[in-house]
C-alpha cells in the first residue's frame, strides 16, 4: 500500500513540474494567412508570444508593401486555474514582385533575453483573376495613376544636353493625398544636374488620348559621357491615393477609401551617338554646343616690370564644364604666372549656358614688342552636325620703357614658344654694406617691470570675479523651477535620441518615437503601457494630475505613430512631431 502511495506522489510531482515548466516556457512564433498568393492579393502576418515583452523589432518585409500594421493585440484568460497570456503583432502586406520571397525573423526581448521567430518563405504568382470580386481601392488607383519619364532627345550625341522630366498623370476620378520618393536614379555614365521644382503645379493634360491631370515632380539635365545604349534607372514613389467608393455620406457626397500605391517610371534607354571622326580638327578638346571664342589683354602698352592680364574666354551654350580651354603660346622672355580659371555658368531646363575663362598674369622684363600668336578653338554643333573652328586675333604687347636686351629681342620672341635663359647686363645687384649701425640692447629685468606688477595684482583682481561666480552658482541652485525645466529637457532628449537619428525615414522614425513615449511612461510610472489602450493611458495621466492639454498632445503623438504606418508623412511632419514629443515629455515631467 505504501509503495503505491509513493508511486502516486512521484507521478503527481512530475506532472505538476511538467505543467509548470510548460507554462513557463517562452514561445515566439509567426503565423501566415497563406503561403501562396497572387500579386494582387494581400497577406496577413502575425507574430505571437505567450509572455509580456519589450522592444519588438519587425523584419524589413523586403518584396512587400506594408498596408497596415503593426496592430497590437493582448489577451488573458484562466482555464482550470491556469493563466494564459498572448501578445501579438499583426501586419497586412501586399507583394510587389513575383517569385519566392522570404520574410526574415522578428525579434522581441522577454526577461532581458532576445527571442526570434522563424523565417518564412512565400510564393507569389501572377495576379489572381476573380471576375465576381469588385476591384479594390489599389486596383482602381493603379489604373488611374501613372508615373512617366519624358526624355527630350532619346538619340543624342556624346556630351549633348538632354532633359528628363518626371511627370505623374492622375485621373480626375481619384485624389492624391501625398507621395514620397523610394528610389532615386543615380544616372551612371552621365553628368547630371537637378533643376529644382520649387512648386508642384497641376494642369490639365492627356495621357494615351484620355483626359488626365499632370504634375512635374522632378527635372534633370544630363550630358552622356559614354556612347552606346545607356540605361536610365527608374524613379519610384510611394503614393497615397483617395479612391471614391460606392457609398455616400449624409449629404450625398462620395465616401473615399485610402489606397497606398508604389509606382515606378520604369527603365528608359538612351542611344548615344559618337561624334563623327570625319572633319574632326586637331584643336578639338570635346566641346559640344554653340560657342564664341575671344582672346583679350587688359592693356597693350606698358613699361617693363608692370603687369597685364591676358584672358582666354569661351561663352555660349553647351557642355561648358566638360572640356579644356586652349592655352596661350607666349614668348619665352615674358614672365607668365599660372592662369586663374573662372566659371559663370548656369544650368537651366535646356542645359548649360554662360562663359568660362582662363586669365594669365604677364610681367615683361625688357623693352620691345612681344606678339601673342593666334590660337584655335574647335567645337561640334549638334544642330549643324559639323565641327567649327574659331581663331583668335594676333595681339602685340608693346613695352615702352625698360632695360634693353642686347640681342634682337623682337626677332627672338617672334619665334620663341618656350622659356629661354636670359643673359642679364648692367648693374643688377648692390654690394653688401661693410659698416653697420647696430646698437647694443639694454639689459631688462623682470623685477619692478610692468609684467611684475600685473602678476602681483592678479590675485586681488580674481577675488571679486570668484565672488560673482559663487553668487551665480547659488542663484542657479536656488532656482527650483529652472532646474526642473533643465532636468525635464535633458530627460526628453534622452528618450528621443533614437528617434532623432532616424529623422527622414518614416517607418523607423515613428517606431522609435512610439517606443520612446511608452518607455518614458514605463520609467516614470512603473507600468507596462503596452497593456493599456489610449483611453486607459488618458485615465491614468488624469489621476496623476497631468494637464489636459499635455495629455491631448501625448495621445495625438501616439495616434500619429499608428497612422504613419499606412499613410504618407513628410519630413516636415516628422520634424514637427519630434519637436512636439520633446515639448510634451518636458511638460509632463515637470507636472509629475
Please give a handful of descriptors for the protein shown:
single chain, 592 residues, alpha+beta, Immunoglobulin-like, 4 domains, 9 helices, 39% strand, BatD, signal, transmembrane
Q: Layout of SSEs?
A:
Layout: H1 2-24, E1 28-32, E2 36-38, E3 43-49, E4 54-57, E5 64-79, E6 82-95, E7 99-103, E8 107-110, E9 113-116, E10 120-125, H2 137-144, E11 145-151, E12 162-170, E13 175-183, E14 190-195, E15 202-207, E16 210-224, E17 228-232, E18 236-248, E19 254-264, E20 268-272, E21 284-297, E22 301-302, E23 308-318, E24 334-336, E25 340-348, E26 351-364, E27 368-372, E28 376-381, E29 386-391, E30 395-399, H3 409-415, H4 450-478, H5 480-501, H6 506-525, H7 534-543, H8 548-563, H9 571-591
Parallel strand pairs: 2-10, 21-28, 22-30
Antiparallel strand pairs: 1-3, 3-6, 4-8, 5-6, 7-10, 8-9, 11-12, 12-16, 13-18, 14-16, 15-16, 17-20, 18-19, 21-23, 23-26, 24-26, 25-26, 27-30, 28-29
Helix pairs in contact: 5-6, 5-9, 6-8, 6-9, 7-8, 8-9
3D structure, described in words:
The chain has helices at 2-24, 137-144, 409-415, 450-478, 480-501, 506-525, 534-543, 548-563, 571-591; strands at 28-32, 36-38, 43-49, 54-57, 64-79, 82-95, 99-103, 107-110, 113-116, 120-125, 145-151, 162-170, 175-183, 190-195, 202-207, 210-224, 228-232, 236-248, 254-264, 268-272, 284-297, 301-302, 308-318, 334-336, 340-348, 351-364, 368-372, 376-381, 386-391, 395-399. It starts with a helix and ends with a helix. It has 4 domains: 26-125, Sandwich (Immunoglobulin-like), CATH 2.60.40; 137-272, Immunoglobulin-like; 292-415, Immunoglobulin-like (Sandwich); 480-591. Helix content is 26%, strand content 39%. With 592 residues, it is an alpha+beta fold. The strands form 8 sheets. Strands 21, 23, 24, 25, 26, 28 and 29 form a 7-stranded mixed sheet that branches. Strands 11, 12, 14, 15 and 16 form a 5-stranded antiparallel sheet that branches. Strands 1-3-6-5 form a 4-stranded antiparallel sheet, with no helix packed on it. α5 (480-501) runs antiparallel to α6 (506-525).
Amino acid at each position: 500500500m505504501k509503495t503505491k502511495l509513493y508511486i502516486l506522489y512521484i507521478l503527481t510531482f512530475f506532472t505538476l513540474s511538467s505543467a509548470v515548466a510548460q507554462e513557463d516556457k517562452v514561445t515566439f512564433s509567426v503565423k501566415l494567412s497563406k503561403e501562396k498568393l497572387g500579386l494582387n492579393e494581400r497577406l496577413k502576418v502575425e507574430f505571437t508570444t505567450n509572455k509580456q515583452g519589450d522592444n519588438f523589432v519587425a523584419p524589413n518585409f523586403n518584396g512587400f508593401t506594408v498596408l497596415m500594421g503593426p496592430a497590437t493585440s493582448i489577451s488573458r484568460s484562466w482555464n482550470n486555474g491556469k493563466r494564459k497570456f498572448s501578445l501579438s503583432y499583426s501586419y497586412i502586406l501586399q507583394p510587389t514582385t513575383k517569385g519566392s520571397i522570404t520574410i526574415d525573423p522578428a525579434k522581441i526581448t522577454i526577461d532581458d533575453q532576445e527571442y526570434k521567430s522563424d523565417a518564412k518563405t512565400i510564393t507569389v504568382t501572377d495576379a489572381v483573376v476573380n471576375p465576381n470580386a469588385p476591384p479594390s481601392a489599389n486596383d482602381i488607383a493603379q489604373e488611374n495613376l501613372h508615373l512617366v519619364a519624358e526624355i527630350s532627345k532619346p538619340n543624342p550625341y556624346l556630351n549633348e544636353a538632354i532633359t528628363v522630366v518626371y511627370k505623374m498623370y492622375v485621373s480626375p476620378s481619384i485624389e492624391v493625398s501625398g507621395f514620397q520618393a523610394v528610389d532615386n536614379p543615380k544616372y551612371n555614365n552621365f553628368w547630371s544636374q537637378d533643376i529644382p521644382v520649387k512648386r508642384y503645379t497641376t494642369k490639365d493634360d492627356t495621357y494615351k488620348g484620355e483626359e488626365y491631370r499632370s504634375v512635374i515632380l522632378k527635372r534633370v539635365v544630363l550630358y552622356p559621357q559614354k556612347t552606346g545604349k545607356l540605361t536610365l534607372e527608374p524613379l519610384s514613389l510611394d503614393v497615397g491615393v483617395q479612391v471614391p467608393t460606392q457609398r455616400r455620406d449624409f449629404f450625398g457626397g462620395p465616401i473615399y477609401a485610402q489606397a497606398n500605391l508604389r509606382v515606378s517610371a520604369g527603365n528608359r534607354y538612351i542611344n548615344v551617338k559618337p561624334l563623327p571622326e570625319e572633319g574632326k580638327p586637331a584643336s578639338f578638346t570635346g566641346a559640344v554646343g554653340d560657342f564664341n571664342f575671344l582672346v583679350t589683354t587688359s592693356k597693350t602698352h606698358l613699361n617693363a616690370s608692370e603687369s597685364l592680364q591676358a584672358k582666354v574666354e569661351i561663352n555660349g551654350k553647351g557642355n561648358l564644364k566638360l572640356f579644356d580651354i586652349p592655352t596661350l603660346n607666349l614668348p619665352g622672355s615674358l614672365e607668365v604666372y599660372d592662369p586663374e580659371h573662372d566659371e559663370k555658368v548656369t544650368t537651366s531646363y535646356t542645359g548649360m549656358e554662360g562663359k568660362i575663362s582662363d586669365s594669365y598674369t604677364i610681367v615683361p622684363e625688357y623693352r620691345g614688342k612681344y606678339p601673342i600668336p593666334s590660337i584655335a578653338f574647335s567645337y561640334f554643333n549638334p544642330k549643324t552636325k559639323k565641327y567649327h573652328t574659331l581663331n583668335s586675333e594676333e595681339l602685340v604687347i608693346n613695352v615702352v620703357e625698360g632695360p634693353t636686351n642686347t640681342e634682337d629681342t623682337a626677332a627672338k620672341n617672334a619665334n620663341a614658344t618656350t622659356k629661354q635663359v636670359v643673359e642679364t647686363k648692367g648693374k643688377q645687384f648692390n654690394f653688401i654694406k661693410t659698416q653697420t649701425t647696430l646698437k647694443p640692447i639694454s639689459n631688462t629685468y623682470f623685477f619692478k617691470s610692468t609684467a611684475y606688477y600685473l602678476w602681483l595684482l592678479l590675485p586681488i583682481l580674481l577675488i571679486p570675479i570668484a565672488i560673482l561666480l559663487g553668487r551665480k552658482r547659488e542663484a542657479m541652485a536656488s532656482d527650483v523651477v529652472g532646474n526642473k525645466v533643465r532636468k525635464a529637457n535633458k530627460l526628453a532628449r534622452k528618450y528621443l535620441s533614437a528617434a532623432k537619428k532616424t529623422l527622414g525615414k518614416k517607418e523607423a522614425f515613428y517606431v522609435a518615437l512610439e517606443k520612446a513615449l511608452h518607455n518614458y511612461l514605463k520609467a516614470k510610472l512603473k507600468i507596462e503601457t503596452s497593456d493599456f489602450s489610449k483611453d486607459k493611458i488618458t485615465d491614468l495621466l488624469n489621476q496623476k494630475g497631468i494637464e489636459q492639454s499635455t495629455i491631448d498632445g501625448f495621445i495625438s503623438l501616439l495616434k500619429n505613430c499608428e497612422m504613419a504606418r499606412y499613410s504618407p508623412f513628410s519630413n516636415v511632419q516628422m520634424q514637427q512631431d519630434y519637436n512636439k514629443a520633446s515639448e510634451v515629455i518636458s511638460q509632463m515631467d515637470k507636472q509629475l
